[in-house]
Amino acid sequence: MLIFSLVVALLALDSAALGASISGQRHRVRTVATFPADIDPENLVVRHSGQILMTASNQNKLYQIDPWGRTKPIVLHTFDGHMSVTGIDEVEKDVFVATVGNFSFATFTSTPQSFGLWKIDLRGTKPCVGKLFAIPELDVPNGLVYVGDNDILIADSHVGGIFRVNVHSGHPKLVDSNDPLMKSLPPDPSNPDLVGFGINGIHLNPLNKHEIIFSSTDQNVIGKVGINQHFVPIGNATKVADAVNDDLIPAPNGDIHVASNNAITTIYPGGSKSVFNFTTDAVRLTALKYGRTDPYKHSLFGTVIVFGETGTNTGKLIVVDNY
Ligand SMILES: *[C@@H]1O[C@H](CO)[C@@H](O)[C@H](O)[C@H]1NC(C)=O
Ligand SMILES: *[C@@H]1O[C@H](CO)[C@@H](O)[C@H](O)[C@H]1NC(C)=O
Ligand SMILES: *[C@@H]1O[C@H](CO)[C@@H](O)[C@H](O)[C@H]1NC(C)=O
């Protein structure tokens, strides 16, 4: 397939905002790449090489971005016949899976039974991309995380639950659907922030592989729940902290960094929080991931929707140091 260069402005790595972290180190914020309308960046994953793969909930494209700005972002693959790419994670070195289907950011709903799981194999000289299987049970697949033994967990924001899917055999299984903390809230005309989204982001707790942490968007809550050896949640989830949220990422030391619109909210063990507002612009930070190569190992890359006045959004990928 063709890999073509996008006509996008690649900004110089200029300082855009500064703030102090709890340890006193400064959170320098830079724009790595900008994307023209119409785009709603949704999620990202960092490759071993340091390159970043980015998805958008209103585009059928997988982008690759060079964090050093040596090359312009490229479209690695176009998923013909689809509108959206949402969660993505690496299942083995340079092999990724992503949920691909038809989601509408305008209505926050999907075409029923439109989502499936795709494999993106980047081990060769050209990307090798193919559909693994349809997952008609999915409604609005959002966070996706590889947990081991060829299993991934997919957080579905409309189902308000977690699917476990084996990337070899398929067999999607709804392993948690009754937890009150994972549910959306009923529509409320006086609260325009409610989008009908329950659980959004999902990750293993790096300090306890038998626990997952998650964000739940309508409820503005970060939660956790124990899982057994089959990655099935045990018992009810409990609240870790309140936070405006989209996706989230745990730090190796157990801090939890939450994408909070124009801010990164950090939750420390014990539940105290700090909020770093990285811009005053009308934006939605949708996901965060740590860099994997120098000088980005303590930096968070973030996918950002920049709301346009006419209703069409532009996007950017940012990097924030000292996390
Ligand atoms: C998803 O959207 C594409 C592009 O609009 C369309 O061709 C396709 O039929 C849709 N798929 C489903 C399952 O509705
Ligand atoms: C879990 O939550 C449900 C729904 O709120 C409740 O009925 C049930 O008693 C809870 N279970 C435990 C063990 O707390
Ligand atoms: C900072 O971010 C928080 C979390 O999203 C938000 O509630 C608050 O209004 C923001 N403050 C400013 C000055 O933008």
Automatic annotation (TrEMBL):
<dbReference type="InterPro" id="IPR011042">
    <property type="entry name" value="6-blade_b-propeller_TolB-like"/>
</dbReference>
<protein>
    <recommendedName>
        <fullName>NHL repeat-containing protein</fullName>
    </recommendedName>
</protein>
<feature type="signal peptide">
    <location>
        <begin position="1"/>
        <end position="19"/>
    </location>
</feature>
<keyword id="KW-0732">Signal</keyword>
<dbReference type="InterPro" id="IPR052998">
    <property type="entry name" value="Hetero-Diels-Alderase-like"/>
</dbReference>
